[in-house]
Amino acid sequence: MDRLAVFWSTPSLKAWALVWLGFAFLPTTINAFALLTEYQRTNQDIPAWEPFLREYSSGVALLLVLPLVRWSINHTPGWAEAPLRCAVQFLGTALAFSTLHLAAMTVLRMAAYGALGQSYAVDDLRDDLPYEFRKDLLTYLLIVLVVVGVRHLIRLSRSLALVEAAAASAAAQTMEGQAPPATAAEPARIELKVGSRRVYLAPADILVVRSAGNYIEVVTAGTVHLVRRTLADFQAELPPPDFARVHRSHVVNRGAIVRIDSRPSGDMDLTLTNGATIPASRRYKSELF
After folding, report:
1. Separation CA 30–CA 128 (nearest Å)
2. Cα separation of 105 and 280, whole Å?
3. CA 222, 223, 224: angle at the middle one, nearest 5?
4. Predicted confidence (pLDDT) per residue in 75-86, tens digit
5. Phi and psi dihedrals of 116, rounded to 5?
6. Hey, what's the torsion of the CAs at 253, 237, 83, 287, to 10 degrees?
7. How far apart are CA 63 and CA 16, in angstroms?
8. pTM of this prediction?
9. Short-list 182, 181, 205, 180, CA closest to 192
C-alpha cells in the first residue's frame, strides 16, 4: 500500500497511468465485451475467455511500450523549432512503437494460450498486420496529441494565473490609493533540474537560453546550466515582455542586450552584458523590436 501511495503521489506517473487507462484498459474492456456479444450473436463456438485474453494482452503490451512514447515526447524538438527532425523522429518512434507492441502482444498471447494447454495461431496475427499497424499508428498519434495538448493547457493556465494575480494586485493597490506597479509582477524563481541537483533562478538573472540538442543551456552572468528540456518548453516559463526569441536556437533577455550590429543579410549580432555575442535571425526581428 505504501508503494501504491508513493506512485499516486508522483504527478508524472499518475498522468501516464491515466493515459493507459484511457487508451488501453477501458477500450480493450469494451472491445472484449463487444467481440463476445458478436460471437454469441453469430453462434460461433469459442471460449468466453478468449476475447478478453486477446484484448487484454494488447492492453498490457501497450503499457510495456508507453515509456517509449514518453521518451519520444520529452526528447523530440518542437515543430516550430525543427519541423523536419520532429516529423522524422515521431515517424520513427511510431514504427518502433507498433513493432514492439505487436511483438509484446504476441509473446503474451503465446504464453497465455500455452498456460491454458492450447496454441496461439501466429498466422492469424500475420494476416491482421496491416490492420494492427494502422490501429497502433492512430493510438500513438492520439496519445502524443493528448499529452502534448494537456501540457500546453497546463502551461497556459499557469501563465493566465500569473497575469490574473498581477491584475488583482494592481487593482487592490489602486483601491487603496497606491499607484500600480509600472510592469507586471515578475514570476517566481524558475526551477532547473541540473543532474541530481535543483537550481533556482530569478528570470532577471538569465542572460540567454540556447538550444543544445536534447538539452538547453541557461546562461547567467557567471554560470552555464545544462538542462534536459526543449527551448520552446522553457521559454513558456519566461515572462514574455522581458524575453524574446531571436533565433531558432536562442532566447535572450532584452535587458541583457548592450549592442545590436546589423548584417547585410538582415540578420543581426547581439552583444550581451557578459561580453558574449549571439546571432539574431531576421525571421525573428518582429519579436525583438
Report:
1. 20
2. 50
3. 145
4. 777 666 678 888
5. -90, 5
6. -40
7. 9
8. 0.48
9. 205
